[in-house]
Design brief:
It is built from 6 helices and 10 strands. With 230 residues, it is an alpha/beta fold. It folds into 2 domains: 2-127, HUPs (Rossmann fold), CATH 3.40.50; 137-223, putative n-type atp pyrophosphatase, domain 2, CATH 3.90.1490. The radius of gyration is 17 Å and the shape is globular.
């Protein structure tokens, strides 16, 4: 991998399955990963789009033994504001000695091109350790290796709403409708990983309520023992 020469790599992550597998691939190739980069929404205190609580994302980073670099954006964030805040975060990473940012994208050419365009001129390389992998084999490998994840966001226009809150396992793969990507690469669903081979310890979670917001179903995950108030 070209990124193997990098002195310091930060992985852009949502806390989900593909991010976790990208991290595993980097570590397996001997790439020195020094931290995780994630975007959170102000007011909600949650991972943008996925709706995972900030406390759980921090717990996941701790369980992986990596620092969490947070980019906070406003609610209903305009794309210009998102890009400005992300650019500042990347600038800070570069000042701290980061050489590259890695992403868990699989095959969406437009998404990759967008990331490469925005990173151009920053002095940081872009790495895509999962690029081109068969998404069903990737999903099955994730399950077979013993990773544990829960679907936290579901697009009901692509997959059944009832999948929100389900474990990401082979039964779920069998329940996906024809045409749905097994890894959810087209936004069919998003997940939160709470245990697996590269975790130092599980992130103890329990299921909360499932809500419909902005056309998506969100399954609220709670830290074990936490009493939901919102």
């Amino acid at each position: 991998m070209a990124g193997a020469k990098a002195r310091q790599v930060v992985l852009a992550t949502s806390g989900g399955k593909d991010s976790t597998m990208a991290l595993q691939a980097l570590l397996k190739d001997g790439v020195p990963v020094s931290g995780l980069l994630t975007t959170l929404t102000e007011g909600y205190q949650r991972i943008s789009m996925h709706g995972v609580r900030h406390s759980l994302m921090q717990a996941q980073a701790d369980a992986l033994g990596l620092p969490l670099h947070e980019v906070w954006i406003p609610q209903n964030c305009p794309n210009q504001v998102y890009e400005e805040r992300m650019a500042r975060a990347v600038e800070t990473l570069a000042e701290e000695g980061c050489d590259a940012v890695a992403f868990g994208d699989l095959f969406l050419e437009d998404v990759r091109a967008y990331r490469e365009e925005k990173m151009a001129g920053t002095g940081l390389a872009t790495l895509f350790p999962l690029w081109g992998m068969d998404t069903r084999l990737l999903a099955e490998s994730f399950i077979d290796q013993g990773y544990r994840a829960t679907l936290v966001t579901v697009d009901p226009k692509q997959v059944p709403a009832e999948l929100a809150g389900r474990a990401f396992d082979r039964t779920l793969l069998a329940d996906l409708p024809p045409g749905a990507d097994p890894s959810g690469e087209r936004g069919e669903f998003h997940s939160f990983v709470w245990d697996g081979p590269i975790f130092r310890r599980p992130v103890e979670v329990r299921a909360g309520e499932v809500v419909l917001r902005d056309g998506f179903y969100f399954a609220d995950l709670l830290p074990a023992g936490h009493q939901a108030t919102t």
